[in-house]
Amino acid sequence: MQANPNYLKLPGSYLFSNIAKKVQAYQAAHPEAEIIRLGIGDVTRPLCPAVISALHAAVDEMGQAETFRGYAPDLGYEFLRHAMAEQDFRARGCDIADDEIFISDGAKTDSAAIQEIFSPDARVAVCDPVYPVYVDSNVMAGRTGEYDADTQTWSRVIYMPCTADNGFAPALPAETPDLIYLCFPNNPTGAVATKDKLQEFVDYANRVGAVIIFDAAYEAYITDPEIPHSIYEIEGARTCAIELRSFSKNAGFTGLRLAATVVPHDLKDRDGVELHGLWARRHGTKYNGAPYIVQRAGEAVYSAEGQQQIKETVAAYMKNAQVILQGLKEAGYTVSGGVNAPYIWLRTPEGMTSWAFFDDLLDRAHVVGTPGSGFGPSGEHYFRLTAFGSYDNTLRAIERIKKM
Ligand code: PLP
Q1: 210: pLDDT confidence band, cut at 50, 70 and 90?
Q2: What are the pLDDT digits (tens) for 172-193?
Q3: Would you tell me which of 6, 20, 77, 178 could form a disulfide with 122, CB atoms 3.0–4.6 Å apart?
Q4: Which of 42, 248, 287, 388 to mutate to test the pocket of ligand 1 (most atoms within 8 A of CB)?
């Protein structure tokens, strides 16, 4: 028996496991320290009442012989696919049909799995810094070449630096890729992409025959009416883009698990193969459907009350974002993000490395954040804080940071 050699190439463990270990060790050594976590991107507010009612009702249905449901359809229940197609897409003028939406239990799972339908030697372009799952899942698939520990880059990955100079929205890739991962509003920088920027990518992808994998997990945080919520708001996206959607950050489903991936019928590979059919085949083989009760809860998100209630939750997080943004500015930090996204991206002081700042913040303020370098080489000297804490903890964390 031999382990998969691709897995053996992965450097270290997953970023957030490393952070958890460090925090655990610090807490063990300093039991009196009252640690505030503004690191991991998990939500803290409870599910909204519309979702809770839908869950109760669906659980009751499952207890009755007449309404019991077994395996869910592996591509998702029609009621949810329809609600999403109507409200997330057609209401915004995006031409997306119900059957182009595939329901799943997470955008993380789908963002890691979507690469399976592409050639094993596909060249991948990613933003730098980036949500680590995109690169790591391609490492596992053996596509990324060799790792250079000095530069923290893979030889076959095309990096698109997102820096203060380009407003954290990347220029087109320097070499021609087959797959381009884009995530806006962005994790970790909190930056957004304008319509013009996305149009540039869509036109480019159509021209070179590349596919964009657009991660819209944070679209609910967009406050600026000019910023697109979906890649399909961009002309030409149906022939070059897949979109990932999640119920985690807009509706607090991180523990319930629900998401969707959109693959339009018009999306074909360079030989004319429809990717919709391949993803349906993959889903049908490897996935047995998100739970009925969770899909009913997802449907409730699209009810009038659900929409109102999740808006209130998002607004509460954005109030935290404002506290962080304002407080850090007052403390003299260079900050961005936090306006159309729940992430605040700050420049570390005095040229400290991201990890040195992590240690300093934990030690002197007992606040946990995420080192920017963990998201890619261009994240060095940056640090991510999230707006997902409670309001009180956010206020206290910022007061402590101001006193550092
Ligand atoms: N995509 C991005 C960019 C994320 O930051 C996250 C979670 O932090 C996810 C996807 C995960 O979404 P889900 O909870 O639906 O798996």
Answers
A1: very high
A2: 999 999 999 999 999 999 999 9
A3: 178
A4: 248
For residue 68, give its domain range: 52-303
Angle, to 10 degrees, between the axis of helix 304-330 and the axis of helix 391-402?
10
How confident is the model over 304-324, as pLDDT tens digits? 999 999 999 999 999 999 999
| φ and ψ at residue 151, rounded to 5 degrees | -95, -5
- Residue 184 in any domain: the answer is yes
1 found inside a domain? no
Which residues have C-beta atoms less than 6 Å from ligand 1? 41, 106-108, 111, 131, 183, 187, 215, 217, 246, 248, 254, 259
Q: Which has the closest alpha carbon to 216: 243, 252, 251?
A: 243
Contact 289, 73 (CB under 8 A): yes
Which residue's CA lies nearest to atom 8 of ligand 1? 41
Q: What is the mean pLDDT of the chain?
A: 96
When divided into structural domains, the chain yields a total of 2
The answer to whether residue 2 is domain-embedded is no
Report if pTM > 0.85. Answer: yes
